[in-house]
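call fold target=DoxX family protein
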Amino acid sequence: MQSFEKASPIILSLLRIVTALLFMQHGLMKLVHFPAPQPGVPSPLPLLLVVAALIEVFGGALVVLGLQTRAAALICSGEMAFAYFMVHAPRSFWPGINGGDAAILFCFIFLYLVFAGPGAWSLDGRRSAVTGSARRA
């Protein structure tokens, strides 16, 4: 049990990094069609989808790096809640039918990161360690 507790900050970092990389992929698929165009997304992108894609790419990058993690995760979580209720929920009540299960998962994982923080491997953690050691000196 003790080893699970010791690994918890590392696993939190892995959850943050993998989630944010997947999130960034959605934005890159919208903006630059990498690794492929996102199915069902119109071209050219309406302004609302451009904003969503920018949040996904830049917010996701901040979360991957663990830089301003809580603020970036809050914005990403809000975007996913908005996307779910604007795009997915009108199609059906059931997420498996309306295609919104990924939006729900992203929303709640990012919301968790707002409260849990970035984990062991993050620029936020390195900054606070440097700031904390500077204060002690």
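return ok
The mean pLDDT is 93. Residues 2-136 form one domain.
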